[in-house]
Amino acid sequence: MFSRRLTPLLHEELAHSPAVALLGPRQVGKTTLALDCAPNDQNIYLDLESERDRARLAQPELYLSEHLDKLVILDEVHLAPDLFGVLRGLIDRGRREGRRNGLYLLLGSASIELLKQSGETLAGRIAFLELHPLDVLEAASEPLERLWSRGGFPDSLQAPSDARSLKWRQDFIRTYLERDVPQFGPRIPPQTLRRFWTMLAHLQGSLLNVAQLARNLGVDAKTAERYIDLLCDLLLVRRLPPWHANIGKRLTRSPKIYVRDSGLVHALLDIPNRDALLSHPVVGASWEGFVIENLLACVPPTVQPFFYRTSGGAEIDLLLSWPDGVLWAIEIKRSTSPKVERGFHSACEDLKPSRKLVVYPGTESFPLGKDIRALGLPELCRELTANS
After folding, report:
1. Which residues of 40-55 are buried (b: 16+ CB within 10 A; e: fewer)?
2. Which domain holds residue 105?
3. Most Cβ neighbours (<10 Å): which of 45, 263, 354, 378?
């Protein structure tokens, strides 16, 4: 059993908001975390993919009114969008009667319909949290390279062998393509979307060129953009935006694209284990994406992530912009003897970040030059968590 860092924040939000939406991909651990929030006799769990549980909500206002003394957990709530209006009425009635917060915990495996419906209907009544796959702090008992190779989904990470882990991820991908994607968007042939998702894995950490992707897939650019939007909304793919401040430089304007879980990158590319990964062309980009996702799982939600690149070759892999305008420049290296390149120095001269850091696979922290420090991923994650 892994201890999730989101647990205290979830309890805090339930104490201060009548409804909380917990978002994250399937199988990331949302249900386990939700059921840990209240003892069995103090929660009602309803899985809206279950016909039996949907039948219990045939008269939702009547049913939910009988359980106002418990935390009602609604899993896959996007499958019943009509419930949001009922929840709004019950929450408002409860406020008038002085009833407590923490009435409803809504679980969703995508942000599309859930954010659209609840954002409009439950505005001012709901808090949003995202549960990421396991990060290096939550899976501290596991070897770092196993977490990188298998990814952060608990069942994949804890599989008894690399072969079983890969099989789990392949089944996960198939389930999304054949069952989950059709629930959220226009019907897309599973084979087409799998090819597209695999293309993105090959392009891990590259600048997004929608026109080229569209040509390779044989669709128009608008269709390719819609596919990317869908995978981003399903919390499976990330667009990392470029830094956009006007500093008198020709800046890259296209985002970078990442498949968010490293284990899914490897499954899409048929990389069976760590040894095969280390000899694969994607190894550097996979490590970069793995580091970025772990760091972004640990930063406060008010911190904005970017990358920085100019036409002159200045580049920063990850730029963290803090609310007070402070910038942290982070370079990501796979080598255990990292070296800082000229592009990073040039970028830091442009932006004047307050912190200059190089993340590498080791554990020792040491200086790499004036104001630049190399450190391991867990150490930086701990520092970011302490600032949350």
Report:
1. eeebbbbbbeeeebee
2. 7-130
3. 263
Shared domain for 209 and 87, answered yes or no, is: no
The two tokens of residue 11 are 């309890």
Look at residue 347 and tell me whether its pLDDT is greater than 80. Answer: yes
CA contacts within 13 A on the Cβ side of 335? 7
Shared domain for 121 and 178, answered yes or no, is: no
What's the whole-model pTM score? 0.93
CB 285 within 8 A of CB 205: yes
> Quick count: other Cβ atoms within 10 Å of Cβ 236?
21
- Cβ neighbors of 288 (< 8 A, separation 6 or more) are 204, 205, 317, 332
Residues in the chain: 388
Count the neighbouring beta carbons within 10 Å of the beta carbon of residue 85. Answer: 14
pLDDT in tens, 108-145: 887 655 566 666 778 888 898 999 999 999 999 999 99
Per-residue pLDDT reduced to its tens digit, 47-67: 998 999 999 998 999 999 888
Residue 37 lies in a domain: yes
Q: Which of 68-82, 135-149, 198-212, 321-335 has the lowest mean pLDDT?
A: 68-82
Choose the final residue of a domain: 85, 100, 130: 130
- Residue 295 corresponds to which tokens in the numbers above? 């760091």
Task: Give the pLDDT band of residue 267 (cuts 50, 70, 90).
Answer: very high
Give the bridge partners for 47, in sequence order: 75
